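Lab manual, section 2.4: Encoding a predicted structure.

Procedure: take the sequence of the chain (342 residues), apply the prediction step described in section 2.3, and record the output as structure tokens. A sample record is shown.
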Amino acid sequence: MSDTKPDQKPDKKDLIRPLSHLGGEKPPAPDWFEKAIATPSEEGAVEVAGARIRYSVWGEEGGADSGRGLLFVHGGRAHRNWWRPFAPFFSDNRRVAALDLSGMGDSDWRESYSLDLLVDEVFAVIDKAGIASRGRPIVVGHSFGGWVTLAAVEREGERLGGAVVVDSPLGVPDPHEGYTVVKAKPAKDGAKAGEKPSAHIYDTREEMIERFRLLPNQPAENLYLIDYIAREGLRPVKPGECGEQTGEGWTWKFDPGDKGAFEIHFERDLLRAARCPLAFIYGEKSAFAQGDGISHLREQARGRSPFVMIPDAYHHLMMDQPLAFVATLRTLLSAWPVRFGG
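Recorded output:
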């Protein structure tokens, strides 16, 4: 999932729940997918400001023929296993990692979150997972993860060999004051300051899988991918864990109060003065590939950064066109960024 939404919310009757007709059963999957998710990975964790951040790593560290390391950053309320079907395609000659940002996946929840802490988590995993052993690594971030990636570029881009933003909503910045892409949300009426919403508890895992949907709302044809990320994003609940009246059940792994308390603001137009090479991949049918923001991005990318539009793909383009996404990113990394120095 992603916690980014287009301006117009769909009616409930129009919400697409692609797995609802399967009754919790797994759909058939192609061989490439089964092989990819069966590829062994190293599992690790690193502590950042009191929270344990989980990550997975593929590929050997170092080696004479190794390319730059690669770190994948998931979208809002998602998890590192969104990248498990894709990471092995890049690990033959690279050290590749994917992390769970705090409040999501198997990483710890926090009392409060900040964009700066998420950037700390990115660099902590880069260091701990050994993906900088062959020089400055490349970070690939989808949606909300693209904002985290850009924040890492703004703060310490000199430590990165490049950054790939995948279908992140971007506005038109003021050249002097930068721009705010997410504003802090005020507490709902009746809510106490600092009080977090409670997680919704479902009776069965199958009910959750049937209700799973992508945000923003969009069609989904590759059900084996949707089913996989849905299953990897839920967890069992013990009696009393979410309140005295709570029995056994299932809920999503993400912290339901994770992202409401902080803003995402960039001090300058990163497209004009990035501290490392940037590249952009968007879905042709994505709501975020329309409007003034994408027009500004296209204009600024021209002559500065690769910009690729994947046909017949929405916001979750790696789920819509998985092998096209792999081929696009492989091709991009084979010729970009220009390799010189460390």
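Check your result against the sample. The first helix runs from residue 31 to 37.
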